Amino acid sequence: MTDFAATRAQFHLPEGVIYLDGNSLGPLPRAAEGRIAKVMRDEWGEMVITGWNRAGWMDMANRLGDRVGALIGAEPGHVVMGDTLSIKVYQALASAFELNPDRSVVLSDTGNFPSDLYMADGLVCTLGDAYSLRTVAPEELIGAIADDVAVVLVTEVDYRTGRRHDMARLIETAHAKGALVIWDLAHSAGAVDVDVSGLDADFAVGCTYKYLNGGPGAPAFIYVNPRHADVARPALSGWLGHEAPFDFDLDYRPGAGVQRMRVGTPPVLALSVLDAAMDVWDMTTMAEVRARSIELSQLFISEVERQAPMLELASPRDPEKRGSQVSFRFHEGYAGMQALIDRGVIGDFRAPDIMRFGFTPLYISPDDVREAAAIIGEVMQGALWDTAEYRKRAAVT
Ligand SMILES: *Cc1c(COP(=O)(O)O)cnc(C)c1O
Fold it and tell me: Which tens digit of pLDDT belongs to each residue from 107-161?
């Protein structure tokens, strides 16, 4: 059994704050500060350029890929780190189109995160008139996998409502219809049980600054199904995805397997922070984290509905049908969230009217949930959000 008090002690949580926004940016793992200081002092400081070999910097993208891979059901050697999630979406999409050359549509849904849709749109513009992006309502996604669909780009957990796609059924249907699937794990990795290999996803991509606590701008990851890994063309053919980067050949030859999805020089400092952040996962299992997350989110829903009935649940009530977040609709959701943040309950707001709260068992306890719900009750019952100051929008919501 996981000792969740012990996992919580691994994080620095700001004084007086109940942090329900780890679905957007995980908090600081205590070990990260020491780790990055050591990497700077002992490796960058003392080894300078020899650190690429002596400190193993060049292999970090693969080592960390394996650590992340262990949480998403990937076998070692099939996940690699680098770049940002938007870039990895682009690479996966471009590869998928080439693997399915007789088809020209990328299918996605309106619950997807806009950047995924923007990247798809950018790619089909580059590819020309024959290609297109088709988006349908999330509930219609499976039914919309038609004969012209080359690839389904699906984010498992809706960033606004937490609604979760049935990935097993989706992948099975897509394959039966001759389409490939890119599974975006942005709100799944570290949040729900994922089995990319067991469910036979073609590609999976995700970021590490949300539930994996890798810090602002932490590198993304990509998984390529071993069936495709040696044939997929990475689209962004950078030198570190080359078979032999240090031969400095003028011709590009893709590296073996997922290695080819690497693009340029890895962010060593960011990867070392992520490495420290991943240590906490050695103290638990994904199944236990998921069970606890359901316990926390069910408690939150019942407490909030009791104390703040003016909030309308926007997430599925069935915990199996949602990720690790709970959202409520409120007509003054932005002001409501500012009032909560002012009182130490940090969630976030997503336009037009969603107040979003993330549940992260590694550092959030049932007592936190009860306390947060009580504060939400006070703010809502007393309309404490109703001030000009709370309505004033900041750049990042
Ligand atoms: C958070 C998130 C992103 C962010 O992409 P970056 O390139 O890391 O900024 C993209 N897609 C989804 C589904 C997300 O949830």
Answer: 999 999 999 999 999 999 999 999 999 999 999 999 999 999 999 999 999 999 9
Which residue's structure tokens are 């890798």?
Answer: 214
Q: Give pLDDT tens digits for 248-257.
A: 999 999 999 9
Q: Which residues contact 394 (CB under 8 A, 6 or more apart)?
A: none
Span 229-276, pLDDT tens digits: 999 999 999 999 999 999 999 999 999 999 999 999 999 999 999 999
CA dist 181 and 224 (Å) reads 11
Active site residue 11: no
Q: Which residues line ligand 1 (CB under 6 A)?
A: 84-86, 113, 115-116, 155, 159, 184, 186-187, 207, 220
Contact between residue 205 and residue 71 where contact means Cβ atoms under 8 Å apart: no
| 79 within 8 A of 278, measured Cβ to Cβ | no
Ligand 1 nearest atom to the CA of residue 159, by list position: 15
Ligand 1 atom index nearest CA of 113? 13
State yes or no: is 113 an active-site residue. yes
What is the tally of helices (H) and strands (E) in the chain? 14, 15
**252 a catalytic residue:** no
